[in-house]
Amino acid sequence: MATGTTFDVDALRRATVHASDGSKIGKVGEVYLDDATDRPEWVTVRTGLFGSWETFVPLAGATTSDDELRVPYSKDQVKDAPRTDADGQLTPEEEERLHQHYGLGAGTTTGTTTGTTTGTGAGYTEGTGQRRGEYEGLDDLGAARGEAGPAAGAGTATGTSTTRAEGHDTSGPTTDDAMTRSEERLEVGTERREAGRARLRKHVVTETQTQQVPTSHEEVVVEREPITDRNRGAATSGPGLSDEEHEVVLHEEVPVTSTTVEPVERVRVGTREVSEERTVSADVRKEEIDLDEDAPRADTRRER
User: Fold this and answer.
1) 143, 183, 191, 189: which is closest to 164 by C-alpha?
2) Which residue windows does the record flag with biased composition (Low complexity) (predicted)?
3) What are the tens digits of pLDDT across the range 147-168?
4) How many CB atoms lie within 10 A of CB 104?
5) How far is CA 164 from CA 71, 158, 176, in A?
6) How far is CA 131 from the centre of its chain?
7) Of 80, 118, 204, 270, which is the most buried if we count CB atoms within 10 A?
8) Residue 138: CB atoms within 10 Å
9) Beta carbons within 10 angstroms of residue 96's beta carbon
């Protein structure tokens, strides 16, 4: 593709339009030529889902490099341009609105501007500048759609009706002109099930308990007293010299233990409800529809 202000129509048809900041806007849909100079003056940009919208953008101030067409406008400015049917012609009112939107001043076209072919595509009638069938892109069934136009060599028809060629299903019987996309939805619920069992069992264990118990015991105490008149008789009542023993019984308290069985508590087992949040993950399937665009695109130009 050439650079500068001289544009190649075939290269423009393959180009992708970028805004002044480099962001991508969309693919070029159609090219409109100036009849006086036979040079490209306008292009339409395919925007929206599957390129369902076409917005007019002037080529004034635009530059090209490889397959990129950069226009001196923002992405929002292009998308907010007045909606104009890319039907091969621009009315003076439509061109005026576009000029005002892009700040190009008043248009110079008087009357209805009609697009003319710049090549030999089958979508145009030779010598009339009228389109035999407008290429609107691929519908959801993957088939090209068109609109009927005037016959070869005829002039512009006024008030003629158009007939749309409906798409057909290539993988089975044709139902309608659209393809249904379906997807699985994840539904999450709960079910009650047995999670386990709990039992109460009683068994005997032995443990050691320690307590302090006060006790007492007797100890031997030897007392000595001199012989006096008061105890002389008791002291001389026995033999003078002899072997003799005297015994005293000593006593003490010792701890003794015993046990008794007493009930201390009642134990039973029950259940309670506890709420918690759990994360559930599952695989779901969905259908995706891709656009396979292999139909030719027609160029149009406008007359001044």
Assistant:
1) 143
2) 107-117, 143-164
3) 333 333 333 334 444 444 456 6
4) 13
5) 34, 18, 13
6) 44
7) 118
8) 18
9) 16
Residue type, 207: E
Type of residue numbered 41:
E
Answer yes or no: are the C-beta atoms of 66 and 15 closer than 8 Å. no
Cβ atoms 136, 118 nearer than 8 A: no
Distance between CA atoms of 63 and 7, rounded to whole angstroms? Answer: 9
Q: What CATH number was assigned to the domain covering residues 1-153+299-303?
A: 3.90.50.10
In the block, tokens 């995706």 appear at 288
CB-based contact 295:144 (threshold 8 Å) = yes
Summarised one tens digit per residue, pLDDT across range 240-267 is: 788 888 899 999 999 999 999 999 999 9
Q: What mean pLDDT is predicted for residues 73-87? A: 84
